[in-house]
Amino acid sequence: MAIFLTKDSKVLIQGMTGAEGTRHTARMLAAGTDIVAGVTPGKGGQAVDFGQRRVPVFGSVAEAMTETGADVSVVFVPPKFARGAVEEAIDAGIPLCVVITEGVPVHDTLRFWARAQASGRTRIIGPNCPGLISPGQSSAGIIPADITSAGRIGLVSKSGTLTYQLMYELRDIGFSTAVGIGGDPVIGTTHIDALQAFQDDPGTDAIVMIGEIGGDAEERAAAYIEQHVTKPVVAYVAGFTAPEGKTMGHAGAIVSGSAGTAQAKKEALEKVGVRVGKTPSETARLMRDTIQTP
Amino acid sequence: MDLYEYQAKELFARHGITVPPGQVAATPQEARAIATELKVPVVIKAQVKTGGRGKAGGVRLAPGPSAAEDEARRILGMDIKGHTAHSVLVEQATGGFEEYYAAYLVDRANRTLLAMVSSEGGMDIEEVAATKPEALARIPIDATSGVDLETARLLAARAGLPEDVQDAVAETLVRLWEVLVEEDALLVEVNPLACTSDGRVLALDGKITLDGNAAFRHDHAAFADGSDDGGLEARARAKHLNYVKLAGQVGVIGNGAGLVMSTLDVVAYAGERFDGVRPANFLDIGGGASAQVMADGLEIILFDPDVRAVLVNVFGGITACDAVANGIVKALEVLGDARCPIVVRLDGNNAEAGREILSDAAHPMVRVVTTMDGAAELVAELAAA
């Protein structure tokens, strides 16, 4: 089992004919993803040959869904056009929209998020995220598929490369699903949403949660874990040495005033019984201990 | 990007919000000249991107031009919570007013926008929230519907503003909303928002944080300013590198914001055992980690005179480690001799092949370590030596 994405997911790619879109579509296909369509306005009727599969291109998400039964969209369009692309997917009623695009203005994210809420039909992951992967089943985004294996750990993270690092360190145990929720100030799917899904997933035994400085998502996740999560959770928080007021790469990773520090997040998580690793490697060791001594 | 008060007021004025007449000055003489043109008295305000200016003595009233010059001389160069005042705003003093508070900001937790309006202006709004919550209206605003005059009146009324000023304040609240949305701001705050006895509504102070992601649809480039880092951040920006200068001795390069942040932490932990050495910078070269980007990154880091050892920490995902290793070898060829030791840790796809490439190249300054923790330990030791 897995969360949000399974071997039955039918994936369409918005922006497939762009350089990034084409490159990552090939990688997703190689990872076993059932990619059924590309969507590029004005290029409907064409097709792109990926060797093992010829993927048809449609002019709109609605048309692609009708013709192929796609139920997941992965968005690779540039920031300027991201809001329009995501809103199109929402209006077409896509159940899952994964926004890989980096650099989407926050007001644009707020608007498509409000629209998704109003429609009640679309889960958004991202923006500015690596997407998600259910190893051995499907991959929607840019997470490398060949660094890990299928298994029973669930992972949710703001950071792409830290996700990869943990997936790699725990590759012998394997993952049900790894979800990169993205490092922007406003994101669609949160730590809490993923925790809830992992808690309900019979294919997940334990959860790794990776956070970083900025906002209070980790503190809220801690409160949620205390109330609702019975599966073991191991966490890692990056950014202990980040100075106040400096943005460290992720638009959301900025400490302002006393809020959002790594220390505060670590304490909140430890208070509810979550074991927090000091480094990524120690976090992997904690997960090993947790799985091996239930 | 946080704006200075004078920049925020420039944007307020563009959207029809009244601000006191004034101009920014970088020297005491300029301050005097501006004060001579304005109606006195004037207020001299340190331009720093932090709060607590008043308490630090960075806001002073000057009765005339020569006092303005004296006050500006005292304030310019002043350190306020680690921020140096390089300029002052010289502004006509406003007399006889009530102080209110107004702000819009992004509410990350609820993924919406939030309006905050209070009848208690001029003081720390967190203190108002704690001690007098009934005087602070907090209303979520739907990003798709926004703030119209009706919503603005509701905000003013809920905040407990006197009835006779509600209409005038509401008009300013609508304009302030326009600043937020049309300028792509993540925060706009006016504290105090003044209502004068003759019925005018003015923004006496202003804070704006702009969304860098939206730069493509604005002309905000003029608001950017360099920081006091010996030009390193500017050099990095010119090379499109995501670089932040820090105070330590260990140069850090990695791929991915999260991994680099994590590397800074691990270096700092290791430094606790080696003379307290700390990371000298944040530098994320992104997923591709090509030879050219690696060379650019190493160049910036080695240019920093504080750096005594470098840690390159790369996880090979889409770009496998053999490609990254080739990039490092080429980067070192481009750079010539490195002036300090470089510890490289490669992990992920084809990690062993990558490490072999580096050992074969046998660069005298390069040391290859398998784990992140081990690499941090070694680089801290080398930086402390």
The name of the CATH superfamily of the largest domain in chain B reads Succinyl-CoA synthetase domains
CATH architecture annotation name of the largest domain in chain B: 3-Layer(aba) Sandwich
What is the SS-derived class of chain A?
alpha/beta
Number of beta-strand segments of chain A: 14
CATH structural fold name of the largest domain in chain B: Rossmann fold
Unreliable stretches covering 5 or more consecutive residues of chain A: none
Strand fraction of chain A equals 15-25%
- Average per-residue pLDDT of chain A, rounded, comes to 93
- Model regions low in confidence, pLDDT < 50 over at least 5 residues of chain B: none
Query: Span between N and C termini of chain B?
Result: 38 Å
Family (chain B): Belongs to the succinate/malate CoA ligase beta subunit family.
Cofactor (chain B): Mg(2+)
Keywords (chain B): ATP-binding, Ligase, Magnesium, Metal-binding, Nucleotide-binding, Tricarboxylic acid cycle
Domain ATP-grasp (chain B): 9-238
